[in-house]
Amino acid sequence: VLFFLNQGEKNGYIQETLELSGSVKAGDTLFKMNCVGCHGITARGLVGPDLHSITNRLSDKQIIKQITEGLTPPMPSFEIDPQNMSNLLSYLHNLE
After folding, report:
1. Cα dihedral sign for 87, 90, 92, 94?
2. Three-class SS of residue 28?
3. The whole model's pTM is what?
4. What's the CA gap between 94 and 7, in Å, rounded?
């Protein structure tokens, strides 16, 4: 039962995030504070992959799960509120 409860919470988080309008500028700031160490200042990759056109390879739901669950080591998991996740998604969509 706990699995379904947690899954429901995760799905609610994803749905809420996808319903928000994100800010590219706020997403850029968030990226620079949390992601540049692995993805580089221009998101072209270092330890982590190049994120340009990532939104063509992964759906927004897959990107949210990657960020919040850290699915591919050494990627850590991040706790991020829906608005900031929406901002980060807007930033990533802007990298194309």
Report:
1. negative
2. helix
3. 0.88
4. 29
Please give the structure tokens belonging to residue 91. Answer: 């930033």
Q: What is the dihedral of CA 47, 53, 56, 60, to 10 degrees?
A: 70
Please choose, from the candidates 66, 86, 60, the residue with its C-alpha nearest in 3D space to the C-alpha of residue 78.
Answer: 66
The residue among 29, 33, 3, 37 whose CA lies nearest residue 91 is 29
pLDDT tens sequence across 39-86: 999 999 999 999 999 999 999 999 999 999 999 989 999 999 999 999
**From the CB of residue 92, how many other CB atoms can be counted at a distance below 10 Å?**
24
> How is residue 44 annotated by DSSP?
S
What's the rounded Cα separation, in Å, for the pair 45 and 40?
5
Residue 23 near residue 87 (C-beta atoms within 8 A): yes
Structural contact between residues 85 and 35, judged by C-beta atoms closer than 8 angstroms = no
